[in-house]
Amino acid sequence: MDYISVREAAKAWGISARRISNLCSANRIPDAKMLGNMWLIPKDAQKPEDARYKSFDGLHPIVKWVGGKGQLLEEIAKKYPAGLGTTVKNYVEPFVGGGAVLFELLGKYKFDNVYISDINAELINLYCMVRDRAGEIINILKGYEKEFLPLEDEDRKLYYYARRDEFNRLIGTGSSTNSVPGAALFVFLNRTCFNGLYRVNSKGFYNVPMGAYKNPKICDEENLSAVSKALQNVTIVCADYRKSIEYIDENTLVYLDPPYRPLNTTSAFTSYTENGFSDQNQVELAEFVQALTKRKANVILSNSDPKNADENDNFFDELYSRQNIFRVAASRMVNSKAQSRGKISEILVCNY
After folding, report:
1. Considering just the CA atoms, what is the radius of gyration of the chain in Å?
2. Where are the alpha helices (DSSP H) in 193-233?
């Protein structure tokens, strides 16, 4: 039998030499043998299927999220680069939010590496705890569901605001991260608050009022369990988006979904964290896109379309003049008046 070296196999299969050595150690390559401290690979050996990241059908976000991309998934999917899951085998999402795109991709493609991040510490705690301790979260949520759903409206309000105060106490004492109770409270409040909104005040405390849902799904045990499995090998980090560059190369798809540029002053509420995202921040993000382009990474970015409010506003057209800009229809849901919600245009930017 003819053999080749680990380095030769790595070049032929498009994976790292270290990965091949690990596959040999795990008996994943038939007839591979050790000579001294080196592995020899049968020349006609086939690349093993990568079992580290498998696809997970039927996943969906575990929280509702303002600006969530569920309604735009078809449009975003049309922009995915060729070779996704094969030559483009890494995925990075530095503003993960509700993770609609993340879960859609995990449901369809296999990746070597997946990295997600956000600066919302409580949101990142939720993802970490669902990955690592989903069973405990499910048990707490079942208790909330059993206690909350039978209550009349006034008692529901008392229950909701008691849980909101509890959540804010955790934030105030620094106990809302690395915290199963913090993660469970995050889900409960998200499922029962007004419009699924996450908004904090200038001190970082959650201040969204209760919603009017008649029968909210507080504990979706099946989806939480499925998401937990899908996140097992995902790198989850609470960090500024710039940190992600360490994980990005030419084999990476990067999806950027930053806080949207407000279309008008009334839509400029403080939503995700106590820190805003100004036009200067948008400019810096565009510079980051250029840095990723130099790395030959594949980048998709979404944002609001200023032309909804002013057809002469070319802010993003000028900012991303070196990229491809697409305008797609979306529904505006964040407004206290239902009649003020409706179809608007959003932009998708691609650097390829």
Report:
1. 23
2. 221-230
- b/e map of 33-53 (b: 16 or more CB within 10 Å)? eeeeeebbbbeebeeeebeeb
CA 239 to chain CA centroid, nearest Å = 13
Nearest to 200 by CA among 123, 124, 137: 123
Beta strand pairing call for 324-332 and 298-304: unpaired
Q: Is the dihedral of CA 190, 192, 193, 194 positive or negative?
A: positive
The tens digit of pLDDT for each residue in 64-93 reads 998 778 889 999 999 999 999 999 999 999
Q: pTM for the complete prediction?
A: 0.80
Do residues 290 and 283 lie in contact, with contact meaning Cβ atoms separated by under 8 Å?
no
CA angle, 178 then 235 then 57, to 5°? 105
Report the candidate in 139, 224, 129 with the shortest Cα–Cα distance to residue 178.
Answer: 129
What is the separation, in whole angstroms, between the first and last Cα of the chain?
44
